[in-house]
Amino acid sequence: MKKIINFSGGKTSALMAIQNYNEGDTVLFTDTMREHPMTYKFIDDFEKYENIPVTRITYDGGGFDAMLSKKGYRQIPNRVKRICTLELKIRTAKRYVRKQWGKQDYEWLVGFRADEERRVKGYNSYVAYIHPRFPLYDAGITKEMVNEYWSNKPYTLEIPPILGNCTLCFLKGKNAIISILRDFPELANDWIKDEEMSAKSGANRTYFQDTTYKQLLQIAQSDLFKGQDLKDINPAFNCSCTS
């Protein structure tokens, strides 16, 4: 059975890959192209230090921008309709493996930990020939154990956890995004552009029902806002953005 190790670009899935990779397996990173630059550096370092190749794929070669453009900016993801997870991660990964190896059975490794039981129980591959496995969960590995492992390595992911996955993903929550924009205002550019393009299309879609990213940036830049240290911030909603 062909083994696919899903690699998000974070420390947890990197540990899973290190523990489970054998020659001939595929470590698959589906790139939204909205990741923090240090995430890409971590993937480069992972390949260099571990001598494990990472296959990098994107939605139609263009990631987030290509997806929204194809939809004419008349759809924008939100917490209820997460078309980004569906299109950029799940469908992109499955199209790739079908194109490469056909509709055979796949052992599909997913990096959920022992402290993420809800995510494990709720996982559905939606495809009969994909057989998910959760080696970190099965081994009882927790977030603390993952962090301890990387504290002893010569390289690591050099950003606070809140900056993992898409830089300003709406699942981080408005308060977290405002805190991020206090330190990294330039990250707002792509997200503001998305909402402005949607307004031009006549759809007027936004990532949050009652707030635009431009407004979140304005709050972050106001003298009244006192943000948290980014290393102490957790996302408002659990991210299930995995292939």
Structure report:
The protein has helices at 11-20, 37-50, 63-70, 83-101, 117-121, 135-138, 143-151, 174-183, 188-201, 213-220; strands spanning 2-6, 26-31, 54-58, 106-109, 130-133. It has 243 residues and is α/β, with parallel strands linked by helices. The protein folds into 2 domains: 2-161, 3-Layer(aba) Sandwich (Rossmann fold), CATH 3.40.50.620; 170-232, no CATH class. It has a 5-stranded parallel sheet, sandwiched between helices. Strand 1, helix 1 and strand 2 (26-31) form a beta-alpha-beta unit. Helix 8 (174-183) packs across helix 10 (213-220). The longest helix has 19 residues, at 83-101. The two termini are 18 Å apart. The model has no long low-confidence stretch (mean pLDDT 92).
C-alpha Rg (nearest Å): 18 Å
The CATH superfamily title of the largest domain:
HUPs
Overall strand count: 5
Task: Give the integer mean of the pLDDT values.
Answer: 92
What is the CATH fold-level name of the largest domain? Rossmann fold
Element order: H for helix, E for strand: EHEHEHHEHEHHHHH
Instruction: Give the overall form.
Output: globular
Through-space gap between termini: 18 Å
Structural class, from secondary structure content? Answer: alpha/beta
Write the layout of secondary structure elements.
Blueprint: E1 2-6, H1 11-20, E2 26-31, H2 37-50, E3 54-58, H3 63-70, H4 83-101, E4 106-109, H5 117-121, E5 130-133, H6 135-138, H7 143-151, H8 174-183, H9 188-201, H10 213-220
Helix pairs in contact: 8-10
